Amino acid sequence: MTRKEAALSYFISGHDCDKAVFSAFENDVIISSKEDKYIHTDCEFPGLPHSKCGAVSGAGCVLFHFKQNIGHEDSAEEMWSRFKDEFLKRNESLKCTELLGYDLSIRRDAMDVIENDVCKNVCPKYIEDAVEILETIIG
Question: Which structural domain, as residue segments, surrounds residue 114?
Fold first, then answer.
């Protein structure tokens, strides 16, 4: 199974976008049990807006842990910058609200997203993009 297939399978089974992206790379990063709890509870990366895309957030976690535990010739900031630039070339934003076209903090928008399966129809592309970009950056 490819990393993209693994990430999509994890997402389709009911997990959030950030966890889906991170799950595709879990075998490539060494994390402590404390970090694992953090990642699977609220995967965040510094510098992201509050309404960040989950696939982008998951990618940030992968880059941070990859750099911290495996090492890479580029700094975490350089890898993160490359990721953001490429993601923005492929998509119009890093923010979930802008990518979905709905503000999930607004109850009516959140209900529309659920009723219309917006995440199931839209998010897989962002998950695939995040995984592809990560594979280019870290191999």
Answer: 3-138
Element (H, E) at 77: helix 76-90
> At residue 41, does pLDDT exceed 80?
no
pLDDT confidence tier of residue 70, bands split at 50, 70 and 90? low
Domain count across the chain? 1
Chain mean pLDDT for the chain: 82
What percent of the residues of the chain are helix, what percent strand, and what percent coil, each to the nearest 5? 70, 0, 30
Measured between alpha carbons, how far is residue 46 from residues 54, 88, 114, 126 in Å? 13, 17, 28, 20
From the DSSP assignment, how many helices (H) and strands (E) are in the chain? 8, 0
